[in-house]
Amino acid sequence: VFIAQSRASGSHRDVEDEELTRIFVMIPKTYTEEDLREKFKMYGDIEYCSIIKNKTTGESKGLGYVRYLKPSQAARAIEECDRSYRAILAEPRNKSSESFEHDYYSNNMRPELRGNTLPFCKSRMQPEFCGFEKAEARIQEPVSKRLSVVSRLPFIQEQLFALFDLVPGLEYCDVQRDPHTNSGYAVIQYSTAASAIYAKYKLHGFEYPPGNRLTVLFLEDGNDSSE
Length: 227
What we know:
Blueprint: H1 12-20, E1 22-26, H2 33-40, E2 46-53, E3 60-68, H3 71-80, E4 88-89, H4 97-108, H5 127-139, E5 146-151, H6 157-164, E6 170-177, E7 184-190, H7 193-203, E8 215-219
Antiparallel strand pairs: 1-3, 1-4, 2-3, 5-7, 5-8, 6-7
Helix pairs in contact: 3-7
Keywords: Repeat, RNA-binding
Protein name: RBM45 protein
Pfam family, one: RRM_1
């Protein structure tokens, strides 16, 4: 079994706990934790829900956390929940929650952020995820279910398929060769945009083989990007 993971991620369990299973959502201030659980339980097994409250008054700030047992469940919730919740992956709990709330509000209140566009981050957010989102912001790359993978070394079909098949939902992996160069190029497609987003987040910049960094980008898949 070959386990692929970015060097910057730390241990697998830490990444799963802090970065991939907890989502941050905007909710009506009247919501209770039970209301929040009821709205998001359809996407997977919830470990806990919590509502952020004003420390002085005890009133809800209209923000909450939902933590799932599996990263795939959190990804499904982000992709399928109503856009009004503006769901995103949450900051690890050892980060400043107040700075995260500030960044979340400042990013999500901008009218141009619609659909499945991921909110652009500030410097205080996760370094690995922040770099990915800043790159997305610069080129305004649309999210899709299809990815292109580029390498300065040629790919072996079976090995590349095994690498991207670690993310659930892989539909196909097509390795293409340029007879005039020794570089590698492949097209990857997943069954959902959530799987493609997760694969790009984890494998863009991943060294495979060691010393050779992969470049992973979204490709137009013919679907309406607003969806």
